[in-house]
């Protein structure tokens, strides 16, 4: 397995795990990975950035839905 294939597998695993801390750590690690071409590094970092952004939007939507459920009738139940 090539280094790029290993990195892609790690990014896949981090995205599937959906833990922001792990994705951020991998982003930093990729920034310092001289074994990857600039394009390959950028592509994998973009995948992580997109997953982080999606996770943030999903979390915000979930919190808004929860607040709406809790505040039916104008007061928190």
From TrEMBL:
Query: Basic and acidic residues: which segments have biased composition?
Result: 59-70
Q: Could you tell me which residues belong to the region Disordered?
A: 54-77
Q: What is this protein called?
A: DUF2526 domain-containing protein
Q: Which organism is it from?
A: Trabulsiella odontotermitis
